Amino acid sequence: MDAIAKATRQPVRMRGRSYVAFTFCPVVPIAGWLEEVDATLARSPGFFVGKPVVLDLSAVDLSQSAIAHLVASLEQRNIRVLGIEGVDASQVTTSMPPLLTGGRHCVLTQNEPKKPEAKPKLTSLLVESPVRSGQSVVFAEGDVTVLGSVGSGAEIVAGGSIHIYGTLRGRAMAGVNGNAAARIYCHRIEAELLAIDGYYQTAEEISATLRDRPAQAWLQGDIMRITPLI
Amino acid sequence: MAKVLVVTSGKGGVGKTTSTAALGAALAQMGETVVVVDFDVGLRNLDLIMGAERRVVFDLINVVQGVAKLSQALIRDKRLENLWLLPASQTRDKDALTDEGVGSIIADLRTKFDWVLCDSPAGIERGAMLAMRYADEAVIVTNPEVSSVRDSDRIIGMLDSKTVKAERGERVEKHVLITRYDQARASRGEMLSIEDILEILATPLLGIIPESQDVLRASNVGSPVTLNDAASAPARAYTDAARRLMGETVTMTVPLARKSFMNRLLGRRAA
Predict the structure, then answer these.
(1) For the residues A127-149, what does the mean pLDDT come to?
(2) CB of A166 within 8 A of CB of A188?
(3) For A65, phi and psi rounded to 5 degrees?
(4) Per the CB 3.0–4.6 Å rule, which of A25, A66, B21, B210 could disulfide with B224?
(5) pLDDT: is A215 or A69 the higher one?
(6) Do residues B21 and B139 lie in contact, with contact meaning Cβ atoms separated by under 8 Å?
(7) Partners of residue A169 in chain B, C-beta under 8 Å
(8) pTM metric for this prediction
(9) Under an 8 A CB cutoff, do B157 and A167 touch?
(10) Is A136 on the interface with B (CB under 8 A)?
């Protein structure tokens, strides 16, 4: 009764499947066309990675070596060509991607990577910790606000004004991009150096009567004024 | 949970090594297992202050380079059995320290001790950077004078940016320890006041160690000041600081050196 199952030779199963491929239609000059490909890649790098790409050469008349060169050039850009169409079968060697026929046109929906929405450019920088000796805060785009103190040997460089809610013991340079209207405000002034738009005063020149009190520095023409705030 | 604490200052000669030894011994006296690690490669001193200089065989660099095992390099204190020293090499320089090597040693020490106290070299170069690199807490030793305070400010900035904790977005807990404080000179305005120092550094105070001959006397005999004469003013101040490190609340006082009776009678020689 024992039935030994005979190994039956099954035919290799094959299924049909269709894919949507990008079709490149190079135009002469090829070098110029490659530059356009480069420009596309620069905008969205990796756009063609892992996507099937077919080369439609019907619009150009290329020799066998020119086709090989074009395929190699695309491969250099990480674009792998799946197949070639629109050329005579004799033009394609075995080392090249296979010749394809019977392609149908379809609409490609290109979903380009969305560009991150341009945030409104920051015009001020808030520093919540004390700025320690040796540290440098540079913000050329606008104002700098420091909630703590600025230590001796630290520096704040701002394109706009500088606001310090602690003691300013270091250097403060405001309006570095030629903004003469910038000002420096601090809760207590023991600054080593104050500068606005390139005009500066060192600690020695700052009047002793201003020390240890809230003060502001501003430019009146080419004279730096340092006045008490309260 | 082991704590890695770096004793640092930026400026040299302010009392980092003395403080490391004194705090380490004080913590050990409170029953904690403590290792003090000398990071001052090439200019080691902690072994002298701990009185272990004649027992150094292997050192930190040997362990970093895999020449010796950690257990071979650790020296047990003769007075306190739960106090250990990992000495630095005197013949090498700071370039012999590697980030990975220090990291693995610190990780190893964490498994064996309650407290790992790293005695940082002066400066802001490689040795000092690696000493603070893996720290959970920092004691910034500061003298009441402007140059020391400014250097401390710079070091605090680095603790907030160059340590592993800072790079992970966490905070290294920082304490200021004011050493060589002279009440009389401060009240005469010859020194920065405590308030000024704390205002500039914006960091909590761990303790105030008075200027005292006891410190020098202790280091000359190779003993942490807290072990040499526990009743002396600096020893009491260090012990208070160590208790604060343990999380106790201790009122902040400036311990004064008790003058002996004869001293009080014959305090000053007339001209």
Answers:
(1) 94
(2) yes
(3) -70, -35
(4) B21
(5) A215
(6) no
(7) 200
(8) 0.69
(9) no
(10) no
With an 8 Å Cβ cutoff, are B150 and A152 in contact?
Answer: yes
- Cβ of A152 and B160 within 8 Å? no
**Contact between chains at B202 and A134 (C-beta distance less than 8 A):** no
Q: What is the pLDDT of residue A114?
A: 59
Rounded distance between C-alpha atoms, residue B211 and residue B145, angstroms: 13
Which tokens belong to A109? 């929906």
- Per the model's pLDDT, the better-predicted residue between B18 and A66 turns out to be B18
For residue A38, count other CB atoms closer than 10 A to its CB. Answer: 11
Distances (CA, A) of B9 to A80, A132, B98, B158, B200: 60, 14, 21, 11, 15
pLDDT over 80 (residue B262): no
Per-residue model confidence as pLDDT tens digits over A3-44: 555 556 767 777 777 777 778 788 878 888 888 888 877 877
* Separation of alpha carbons B98 and B87, rounded Å: 16
- Which site among B154, B160, B192 would you substitute to test the A interface, given the most A Cβ atoms closer than 10 Å to its Cβ? B154
Per-residue confidence (pLDDT) for residue A111, from 0 to 100: 58
Rounded to 10 deg, the angle between the B146-159 and B126-133 helix axes is 60
Report ipTM for this prediction: 0.72
Helices (H), chain B: 16-29, 46-49, 60-64, 70-73, 99-112, 126-133, 146-159, 164-167, 183-187, 194-201, 213-220, 225-228, 233-245, 261-265
Residue of higher predicted confidence among A60 and A166: A166
Sheet of A81-85, strands arranged across: A22-24, A53-56, A81-85
For B269, the token pair is 């020689």
For residue A28, the model assigns a pLDDT of: 78
Q: Which pLDDT value is given to residue A127?
A: 95
Provide DSSP, A88-114.
-GGG--TTSPPB------------PPP
Burial of residue B132, with CB atoms counted within 10 A of its CB: 0-12 exposed, 13-18 middle, 19 or more buried: buried
Structure tokens at A55: 């080369």
